[in-house]
Design goal:
Length: 370
């Protein structure tokens, strides 16, 4: 999988910019707030249709403009693919593959696979459960694109059920109506839970192996999916019954609070090192080791499943890794993964890396060869 060309129009602080990628590794060099991360964000949008920085398309459009467009040309083992994403400050976005507008944005997912590693990823350890749920959901979008539709449907049902529960403050709940929404919540929620369990089961042992290697056998990482609903088995029937039982148990509390307290929107992904919760464990260096192991595991897992190495996006993280962790990361990359790296200086790279990399200077939304 190789990204040959990227064109940005009215995206973030880029008015008009085309980048031709001429080497497996591209280093984007520049001061802070010049647009380096914006470029990686554009690739992230082509991969997952989401930005980890903002939730509204209007925030991605250059000030004073009404829309922005990201265009890319990608080579995969089965041929060349043209991608385009038109973002509007008002109204729906338009996704295009090989110059054909898609009726379902779901069909855009899984074409360009990418793993991003930024300083914000430390929130995987330090942040709240929602951060970790968002992380695993974004990975699933790439590996199993239909999951985006499943999750969207669950969130729609959840919103409607919450609305019904809130109305209970002012009127008597219709048991039949609540039961109907319960059934839909359970059906869609079960699909979310089972897919999250499966992906964690595949990712966790790979991440554990990487973590052991990076920590030189001194630490053991465990990643555990802890659903809000405890089922005996990961089968639709078992999860369905556990869902029914827990909804019944929490029905009074839900009606009192006007909010759904049961379901995968309240699940947790536990990260532990040597049986101690990582959030409370040790230094920033140890937490960075954990995140690095997870990112290397994502790369490996995506390559296993899709049959091609994904892109790797490194957003100013080398400066935050010590020399040992830098070397671990750089030795894995080699020329196996096309890599886009942002940095404010070249001091973290050895001469061999610099000689084999394309180096681009980023300054005020303009990119030129360094």
């Amino acid at each position: 999988m190789y990204l040959n060309r990227l064109h940005l129009r009215h995206f973030r602080n880029y008015r008009e910019q085309e980048i031709i990628f001429s080497a497996p590794k591209t280093i984007l060099l520049g001061d802070n707030a010049q647009g380096k991360s914006n470029l990686l964000e554009a690739v992230e949008l082509l991969s997952t249709l989401k930005s980890h920085r903002v939730s509204r398309d209007r925030d991605l459009v250059l000030t004073g403009e009404t829309d922005s467009k990201i265009t890319a040309q990608l080579t995969r083992k089965h041929g060349s693919i043209d991608l385009a994403l038109l973002l509007r400050d008002k109204g729906r976005r338009t996704a295009t593959v090989n110059r054909e507008n898609l009726k379902r944005q779901l069909d855009f997912l899984g074409i360009l696979n990418a793993v991003e590693f930024s300083s914000l990823d430390l929130d995987l350890v330090r942040g709240n459960p929602e951060t970790r749920r968002h992380w695993i959901d974004s990975l699933l979008f790439q590996i199993e694109p239909v999951y985006a539709h499943i999750l969207h449907e669950y969130q729609r049902v959840l919103k409607q059920r919450n609305s019904l529960l809130k109305q209970a403050e002012h009127r008597t709940l219709d048991p039949a109506e609540l039961e109907s929404w319960n059934h839909q919540l359970i059906l869609t929620g079960t699909k979310v839970i089972r897919r999250r369990v499966r992906i964690i089961d595949r990712l966790a042992p790979i991440a554990r192996t990487w973590h052991t290697k990076i920590s030189k056998n001194t630490e053991e990482l465990t990643i555990t999916y802890t659903p809000n609903i405890t089922a005996i088995e990961n089968t639709p029937e078992s999860i369905y019954q556990a869902f029914v039982d827990r909804l019944h148990l929490r029905r009074i509390a839900e009606q009192s609070l006007g909010n759904t307290l049961v379901g995968p929107h309240r699940d947790e992904i536990e990260l532990t090192i040597n049986t101690t919760p990582a959030k409370a464990y040790g230094s920033q260096g140890q937490q960075r080791t954990l995140v690095l192991a997870i990112k290397l595991a994502e790369l490996e897992l995506i390559e296993q499943i899709v049959g091609e190495p994904p892109l790797l996006l490194l957003d100013d993280v080398l400066a935050e890794l010590d020399l040992t962790r830098q070397n671990q990361l750089l030795s894995v990359i080699e020329d196996r993964f096309q890599t886009l790296i942002t940095t404010t200086h070249l001091g973290a790279f050895d001469a061999k890396w610099l000689d084999s990399s394309q180096i681009l200077q980023v300054r005020s939304g303009k990119i030129v060869p360094a």
